[in-house]
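Sample entry (248 residues):
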Amino acid sequence: MKKINTIVFASIIFVACNSSANKTSESDTTAAAPDSMNAAPLNDTEWISLFDGNTLNGWHTFGQTDVSKKWDIDSGAIHFSPKTKGEDGDLVSNDSFANFDLKLDWKISKNGNSGILFYVQDDKAKYEDTYKTGPEMQVLDDERNEDNKTPSHRAGSLYDMIQATPGAVKPAEQWNAVEITSNNGKLDFYLNGVHVVNTTMWDDGWKQMLAKSKFKEWPAFGTFKSGHIALQDHGHDVWYKNIEVKKL
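Predicted structure, serialized as tokens:
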């Protein structure tokens, strides 16, 4: 009987310890769950900020090595000030991009005009202007600026090529959120959450659009698959902020 009691006692201890271990394991798993659920998605780290909110580091005026005094910082935004003395010229990112997802906010002055260009070739001696190579998402006061007479020149449009879906832009002096994605030729524009333009670059349809646009005069336009981002100096006050890009 003594031997039997020892065996039974040992079995009881084993079962109790095993049950305790299982509870500890379950408790550890439960405790770890919130951290796992709250962890930031890995692809968030792929976004690159192109504007720190305080300086123009990472940018230069087209054809120059520094930034013209006409481009400054105003209340945490990049601002073009036409009345300030300095060299005219678009603001160009130091870095270039191939496939990308670009997000930013813009605000235009009353009667203002500007633009967001991409695939710009940073060679002023060869191409003279950013728009000689880079397609543009139009930035415009649709209500007042006379460029509104041409549908494909209105805000959010692929300038002089495809008219943006109407009604997405906010009035002058209000912030607009945009997203431009270019991935293996598929080009999409979003304005305040509305998908306003979609097309395919570099195919026969693209070439036909170019042939019907003002860009037909410049054979290098819209042909590059990598280049710089540019913010246009069109002689009007304009503001840009929250500029970030992700390579695709």
